[in-house]
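User: Could you check the structure of this?
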Amino acid sequence: MRRPLLLGIAAGMVVIIVAVVAIVLVTRDDGDSSDIAGAGEVLSAEQRALLDSAVPSPDCPDEPVAAPEDDSLLALDVLRVDENDCLVSSTEYVAADAVDARRDELLSEDGVVAAGVVPDVSIDEEDDRRDDQWPLDRLGADPDEDELPWPDGNGAVLAVLDTGIDETHPDLGDAVVERRSYPGEGAHDPNGHGTHVAGIAAARRDNGGIVGVAPRVSVLDVPVRLRQANENGQSWPVGLTWAVNHGADAANMSFGGAMLDVTVPEELEELQVQVAAVYFAVRNDVVLVSSGGNCGPSQDCDEENQRQTPAGIEGVIAVGAVQEDFDLAGYSTRNEDIDIVAPGGGDMRNAVLSTHLDHDYEEIQGTSQAAPHVAAAAALIRAAAPEATGDEVGQALLDTADLGPLDEGDREGPGVGRGFLDIGGALEQVLGGEPPATPSPDPSEATQAVFVQDDEVFAFDGSSVQRVRELDPGTRMRWVDWSSDHSRLVGSDDGELFSWSARSAPVEVPCGWCSESTPAYVEDVPVGGEPVEGGPERPEENGDFVVGMDYSGTLTWYDAATLDEVGTTMPTFPPNSVGSKTLLGTVGGQLLVHESGGAQALERVWLLDPASGAADSSYEIGGIAQVPIAVAADGAQVAVVTGYGACGAEVSVLDGADLTEVASAGLPEELIYDEVFFNGDVLYATMEVAASDCSALQPGGLWRLDGGQWVEVDELPVGARPLDGLAGGVSESWLVARSDGGVFDPPLGGAPTPGELGTITDGPWATPTRTEVPWP
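Assistant: Sure, the predicted structure tokens are below.
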């Protein structure tokens, strides 16, 4: 859980902590604080107390409402704390002459914090062109090196409140992990602004494009209502509430609208919704960053250097823009709200190159482009120092900002705040002078886990738990597997195949053979067999597929992402292989198939080449498969549990290349197998105590195969899987299912606590570890 601290930041501030209301108040140097839109001024003690009682959670209700076709209706936003301590943001559409009455009615209800019509906000950008990424050079990156001199942000979550993000852009790859969609939305970014901002912060490296400031940060895509786009979208306070509930560490808001006057009652009420959302975010340790505005002396604004929200709200870092030569850009707003400056492009200089629509790149300038440099810096610092509070991160960004590079004349006036962003200096301050954290491991090197709570499937990606899909009541998970880069999860239950990634909703298709045969996941192989009649056109290149085998032995190929049927194959076995065939899974890219005895009364397992369909190596076994196979991380070994009944089962550990026997073992007395899995190159098993009919009676503990004998490791676990390659201080742990709930042992920083993890009712399953993780 994030600690509930508030961040008070601005140029030349004196910070005073008032313990009575647990809020940081800020006094500006100009001596006139009457117009500061701070929580202490805008919100009552009762409103703040309600917000303090709210606990962020992705399970909090969120039901976006479609905008009506009647343009005369106004969007009335409501923030309320419900009976489950969730801050719920919602929108009602009411006639203009009914707003006051409806607001009064809402405010009389228990739990309502604020209600108001949030004014429109606009994008803070200017168009121009640029060929390279000079901003990274100015921030301290070596122009001749691809690597950045600071951590890459892996493990942190950055919310981008904007026009949306085109997540299909190749340079954004797997950046977007979740999106708050809204009724009536069309293209995920109808404008391009949000995609541009996201690329500055999070563009992935080593793919021929650009490099973001934090190239492995996870992004929440939060489209909000802007004048230029998303007219049906939610207001930015509603979007910000959602981002906090969904685990944001930092949030970027590259937009602004004129600051409302707190002395005017109607405007104060509208401002309360905005300030309440900011208060909730900062109270829950989210670092908030906003563009400072493009109303500098070179622009034709209604009011030069006008103050705007959210930049002028306490707790928000307002960012101004500098050119390549460090001069303050002519368009950049010059007022006391600006806290810091960053690369944004300028009048006589070049713009900022970043991702845009149609998989393209554009050069754009504005404080919109400056802000994500700072927001990404906040996120990567949170990733490198996960125990740091939002207050500590924000204060470090300000304390280490450098006036030195800026033009002398700019240093003396408003609009530059504390100075130019210094990512390395801020990181060093947060880490207490220690060197930056070791870069986190590649996701493909870290294990992933899946488990079931009641009838819902969840995935753990090494740092957070995400909901995957719902199971029909009484349905059991049969099989799961991951892509080699761990970006996709595929699986099956009694009657359905599914495919899921963190970036999209699961795809599910009926599967008549799933209850009898285990599917297999193969990558980078040619499309097999004859095309399915009426199916999609098949590419000539290799692809990733889920493969299933029916009772006749026919293999059906499904596109791994869409689960469309793309082809069928009849594999070829030697003439003496006459028994019925059952698919068991994959080993080192080969299919492992079980053959029943047939006329010769032999039981075998075969390795089958998925490209040609030809079977070659085999191993003679005794009986049918009793539990799913286990495969080592490098594919060098596979464990097969077979027998003619659960009580007589035997495990055979085979070489993954040719199926020669490596080891074998029978069962410990009065036990039967539940699951087998590899921990490094050592085989483990969870056992169950056998009833008189060889059914499972109760959990029988965790066991390890040692010298051909099973040795008990722990008598308590119902289920367990080792995890390695994790970020956040503890690189190795176990996810353990016990009768009294799930637990990570040893505990992981930032991971769900036992109370939050809940009871694991099936599983866990995990990708096999590459090195043995010691049992705690």
